[in-house]
Amino acid sequence: MTSRAHLGVIAFLSTEMDARALRAALDFGLIETLAAAPADMGQLSRRSRLAPRSLALLVDMLEANRVIVRDGDVLRLTPAFRDALRFRDLLEARIAFADLVWPDIHSLFNALLADAPQFMARSKTFDLFRYDRCFELSAENRAATQAWTRFTTCLTKYEADAALDEIDLDGVGDFVDLGGNTGEFSLALLRRRPDLLATVVDLPVVCAIGRDHVAAIAPAQAAAIAFHACDMRRDPLPAPADLVAFKSALHDWPDADARRLLARARDVVRPGGRLMIFERAPLHFRSGRPPYGLAPDLMFLHFLRHPALYLETLGELGFVDIDCRRIALEVDFHFIVARRPEASP
Ligand SMILES: C[S@@+](CC[C@H](N)C(=O)[O-])C[C@H]1O[C@@H](n2cnc3c(N)ncnc32)[C@H](O)[C@@H]1O
Questions:
Q1: How far apart are CA 253 and CA 83, in angstroms?
Q2: pLDDT by residue (tens digit) across 206-245?
């Protein structure tokens, strides 16, 4: 099983004040200073240029959150925070994403619970995921789309391996990721199987961002990932492949649309090939309070499904060997894999 060490990040984002102190410590250079070597308050004050009482407040907050520990006059990062800091991009993305949705949770929590349409209409978060701005290539649409793909890209970078650990990739020659965003899931697959060919299906602006993303972070893999820009609800889809995925893509759609997408996906699976679905499960926080860092997950309260709809639809579509597992990450996910029979029409 791939390491899940990145899950430790969320322990430092329990409350908004924890996130504020960490963001400030990153911005004022305290974390970088302490990552290089232990330091005393004088050294931190010179580095951060913060007034003594401001620095003292910040240090107290970081100590209470077990980011740092005092040893006499000397301050150092705790071993647990050092581990979390290896995933600094995830830590920063979690803070930024939570900060973005927090005003909605703060002012509209009752509507979120009791009146989902009202919540959607008034929430600013859903303005962010504007798929209607992903069709026309323009600088404005690109900037608006990047405002959310930076989150999906970072989360998928860390979520992909948990799904890939569950699937046997022997004999897979090609892969299609429906709603595959900037190609991050395909990149994770190619790290395991560099000989594969992947196709990412997504809206035109997302595909344009994805092409640049892959070329920038993994130029050696760029030739192995094709981007197929289309509206997957109605446009022609790529040629059939051995493995086809929906990762965190089906929850966007009401039941009837999700069923239609699954029916379309069936034809993209080569007979004998497999379809996989990797989706957040309905939320629960039975083992502890929702941490601030998971505030974005609350926004999807009404969208996250029980897997029954997927399992039933896959059966109706003639898939066999349908397997469904639960994978525990920061929240639970469903991992479903099903085979299209060799002899299917
Ligand atoms: C919630 S995101 C998940 C992205 C990615 N699979 C991940 O897990 O990070 C849903 C994806 O579906 C894409 N999408 C939405 N509507 C689409 C459509 N009609 N056709 C193709 N892609 C679509 C979005 O652009 C987005 O990349």
A1: 37
A2: 999 999 999 999 999 999 999 999 999 999 999 999 999 9
How far from the centroid of its chain's Cα atoms is residue 216's Cα? 19
Q: How far does residue 64's CA lie from ligand 1's centre (Å)?
A: 39
Q: At what angle do helices 139-164 and 204-217 cross, to 10 degrees?
A: 60
CATH tag, 5-86:
1.10.10.10
Q: Is the CB of 247 under 6 A from ligand 1?
A: yes
Per DSSP, 176 falls in state: E
Each residue of 281-334: pLDDT tens digit?
999 888 889 999 999 999 999 999 999 999 999 999 999 999 999 999 999 999
Q: What is the rounded distance in angstroms from the CA atom of residue 217 to the CA atom of residue 221? A: 9
Q: What is the Å distance from ligand 1's center to 258 Cα?
A: 12
Query: Residue 210: its pLDDT value, please?
Result: 98
Asked whether the predicted pLDDT for residue 39 surpasses 90, the reply is yes
152 lines ligand 1 (CB under 6 A): yes
How far, in Å, are 259, 274, 305 from residue 254 at the CA level?
9, 23, 10
Measured CA to CA, the distance from residue 333 to residue 206 in angstroms comes to 24
Residue minimizing CA distance to atom 11 of ligand 1: 179
> Is the pTM higher than 0.90?
yes
Please tell me the class of the 90-339 domain: alpha beta
Domain boundaries, the chain: 5-86, 90-339
pLDDT tens column, 169-197: 999 999 999 999 999 999 999 999 999 99
- Radius of gyration (C-alpha) of the chain in whole angstroms: 22
For tokens 């959310």, name the residue: 148
CA of 149 to the centre of ligand 1 (A): 10
* 145 Cβ below 6 A of ligand 1: no
Residue with the nearest Cα to atom 24 of ligand 1? 179
